[in-house]
Every structure is written in structure tokens, then in C-alpha cells.
Amino acid sequence: MNEESGKTRLLAVDVGSSSVRASIYDEKAEYVEGTETKLEHTLDYTPDGGAVKDPDELFSLVVRAVDETLEHAGDTEVAGVAFSTFWHAVLGVDGSGKPITDILTWADRRSAGAARKLRERLEEREVHRRTGCVLHSSYLPAKLLWLSEEHPERFERTARWISPAEYFYSRFFGSDNLTIGTSMASATGLLDQNEKRWDEELIEDLPITEDQLSPISDDPAQGLAEEWAKRWPQLANVPWFPAAGDGACSNIGSGCTTRERLALMVGTSGAMRALWKAKSVEIPDGPWCYRADAERFVMGGALSNGGNLVSWLTQTLRLPEIEEAEKEIAKMEPDSHGLTFLPLLAGERGPTWSDDANGAILGLSLASRPGDILRAALEAVALRFSLIARALEEAIPGEKEVIATGGGLLSSPVWTQIMADALGRPVTLSGVEEASSRGAALLALERLGVLKLEEAEVPLGETFEPDEGRHEAYREALARQQRLYEAVMEEGGPG
Questions:
Q1: Chain center to CA of 486
Q2: How far apart are the first and last CA of the chain?
Q3: I want to staple 162 with a disulfide (CB 3.0 to 4.6 A). Which of 41, 166, 329, 383 is the partner?
């Protein structure tokens, strides 16, 4: 508690694919002005499909972010530490907790062949029904099989397979008592979602044993190691809550905590998700299903291409930043560029989960301008979201309000309008700029007994209404995109 005001203050750390952020939040999960630290970083991409990060480099950014935010906060007393980190990542450590591998992220596609092998010997629908995850390079089963085959020496030297958050906590508290929170475990592809335990049947088919995975616990860590207690005395004996997945935190931070709201997020990647409290769930074909915590499920679809696609186009075509470029594309009519864009440069997760998919553009001519290609890309991502929306409508029936989150949409009214027109439903901007960070803070405040997150007030921004004529144009564009997808997959896909 803050001695001067008698109010709770939390430190929230959000580790994403492109930045590490730290901020102080108050007892209503409102950001305390002047306390944010943002440190940008990039994943390391390799020509063979790798997307990795050095664990010590990322840890150093976390430490620096905490340092700077505590400096901004002055003598503010902190009641706890909340963490949000990206899902679907793994690294191997030896018996003393030192990294053997880089962090393999969700974007690492090198295990596509391993995923195919798993699909050949396992019943994928049954695996998905239990774990909420298909057999795909995004998840740990394929990554671990690939590592065992391609890097056997490092694989054999690995004592534990852990998430980035576990590595951070092992450095802060010691590696003897590693645990993983329910939320992070739920997105590995190794957790039985309803039983909330490691899936023994699946693990038996992998080259690991269950004791190489951390026990699952949502109890907070407490009692920093001496080095860190001296560095951060105000954090030395407060609870550090287990990291939750950034996607779940984004839903919570933007107020999408019931079946009646869908969070539409475009950051580095993209996702559409519903989150709700339940004792169990029947997992249908199509959407993935993870957990926000031991009481809440989150279901949805994800795209590997979002803001990263726009960044690539901006750099490759030497476009101005999106805020400037969209002045030009705002003047264009929907689908008027004559292009069919398959926006799968970083591979595909939702809705078809093909590890063999790549990007393609059809219809280029000497009349095509950079702005045409950018507009086509924004529309193409929106069209992929419309497919995810269809799958979620079948899985979770009923009217839903769509809340837009993530820097990709919050900074681009044009893209948000395209989303509304492609979906054929209103899209309301979230009034929260850093939804993942705020969501982590809300989860921690609930654990501290300060509030119930479903009752937290969440600001909303402008609502973008769809236009029926534009929606019809995008329906035709989607059909064209689907034909291109089928042609590309038939020509260059498996088999």
C-alpha cells in the first residue's frame, strides 16, 4: 500500500514480440502518469524460418525496464508485480538454469516438418480437443521434436524446457523451485485444458519427460535473491504473480471478459478472442483454446501477420509511416486496386493452420503504386479476420460487440474502418492503449482482493460503423483471396 494515499500500487511488466514495457498502475488498474518505460527490440529471423531471441538479451531489457520505471515512480510503495509475456515460446536450460538454446518464439517455422510427422502418428482432433492446440510449428510439441532431431547435442544437454517468464523468475528467485502459471502452460500445446495438468498421453509421444516441465502453480513468488533484493528493495518481499499470456491479458485489459465481447487485436501479429469464466469447456474444431488463469478460458483465432506485415511493406516499399501513408489510402475505394493479396509472409496460424503457406500478390501491373499494395495488405488482413469471425460465431453463438485493441488499429482509423467493413459489424476502439499491461495488473489486483476484473471500468473510444456496399465488395474480395489461397497451396503445399 502507498503510505501517503493508502492506495494499492502495482508494477506491471509486459514482454512482447517487439517491445518490453513496465508501468505502475493504481488500485483501479489505471496507469500512473509518467511511470511507463518502453524498450523496443526485434526477434532474430533466419532464412530457414527461424524466429528467436537471446534469453539473456531479453532478460536485460526486463531488468532495464524495471529499473527505469521504479526510478520514474520515486518513493511509491509497490504492493506486487504483475507479468504478461508472449505465448508459445520455449527455451532449454541446463541443471543450473543456464540457457542451452535461444528462445524459440511463436513465429519460428522451422518445426513445420516435425508438425507433419506428429500429425501422421497422432489423432490431431483428439489432441486439439484436450489441449486446445493443433499440431503446428507454433506450439511446443513440434518445436521439441524438431530440436531433438536437428540439434540432438543441445537437446540432450537440456534439463528443463521452460518459458521466457520462467527464465526471468529463475534469475530473480533462483532456479531450484521453478513453476509455470496456468495461463502460460495453457498455450504450450502440452496442457489438458479441462484437467489443468500436463497431457500425459501426448508427452509419451514426445522425446521429453514430464519432469522436464515445471510444475503448474498460480502461487506468487516472493523473496528476491540477494542481488535483486539489494537492487530493488521495494520489490524484495512483495508477491510476484506468475506471468499470464499477453493475449489473455489484452482481452482483460480492454474489458473483453465475457462471451458478449470479442477483442480484435492487431499488434505485431493479430488475434480475435473471447474470454469467459467457466469450470470446463468443450473445445470445438477450428479455434484454439487456452486459459487466462485457473478460472477463465480464452478462445479465438490468430494471425501471424499484422503490424509486422505493415512494417515490412513500409521498409521494403520505402513508404512513409502508416499515419502519413494512410492519408493516401483513405482516399481509395474498397478493393479498387485490382490486387489479390495473400498476407501470409510470416506463415499461417488461423484459420487453416498451414505450415506451408506463404505470401503472394496477384494482379500487379505497371500501374500499381506502393499505396495500392499497402491498401491491399490492410484489406487482406481484415479478410483473414472475417474467416476467424465465422469460426468463432459457430463456436460461441450469440451477438457480440467487437473491441479493437493493439497499436495497429489504435493508430490507424483507416484500418479500423476496413475491419468494420470486412466484418460487416461495428468495431469500437478500446480506450486503453496498453491492454496487455493493464490486463496483467487487473489479474494481480484480483488476486490481491482489491477488485473483480469483470467489474473494472474500461474506457471505450470511437465506434466505426460498417457500410453495406463496402462489405459486399469485401465479400467478393474474400472469395478471390480464397481462390488464390487454394491455388497457391495446391501448387506449393504439401504432397
A1: 27
A2: 61
A3: 166
From the number of C-beta atoms within 10 Å of its C-beta (0-12, 13-18, 19+), residue 394 rates as exposed
Cell of 131: 489441449
pLDDT tens figures, 168-218: 999 999 988 789 999 999 999 999 999 999 999 999 999 999 999 999 999
What does pTM read for this prediction?
0.91
**From CA 374, how far away is CA 317, in angstroms rounded?**
9
Q: Could you give the C-alpha distances from 309 to 39, 320, 365, in angstroms and in order?
A: 21, 14, 21
| Residues 422, 385 contacting (CB under 8 angstroms) | yes
User: 413-427 pLDDT, tens per residue?
Assistant: 999 999 999 999 999
SS3 labels along the chain? CCCCCCCCCEEEEEECCCEEEEEEECCCCCECCCCCEEEECCCEECCCCCEEECHHHHHHHHHHHHHHHHHHHCCCCCCEEEEEECCCCEEEECCCCCECCCEECCCCCCCHHHHHHHHHHCCHHHHHHHHCCCCCCCCHHHHHHHHHHHCHHHHHHCCEEECHHHHHHHHHHCCCCCCECHHHHHCCCCEECCCCEECHHHHCCCCCCHHHCCCECCCCECCCCHHHHHHCHHHCCCCECCCEEHHHHHHHHCCCCCCCEEEEEECCCEEEEEEEECCCCCCCCCCEEEECCCCEEEEEEEECCCHHHHHHHHHHCCCCCHHHHHHHHCCCCCCCCCCEEECCCCCCCCCCCCCCCCCEEECCCCCCCHHHHHHHHHHHHHHHHHHHHHHHHHHCCCCCEEEEECHHHHCCHHHHHHHHHHHCCCEEEECCCCHHHHHHHHHHHHHCCCCCHHHCCCCEEEEECCCHHHHHHHHHHHHHHHHHHHHHHHHHCCC
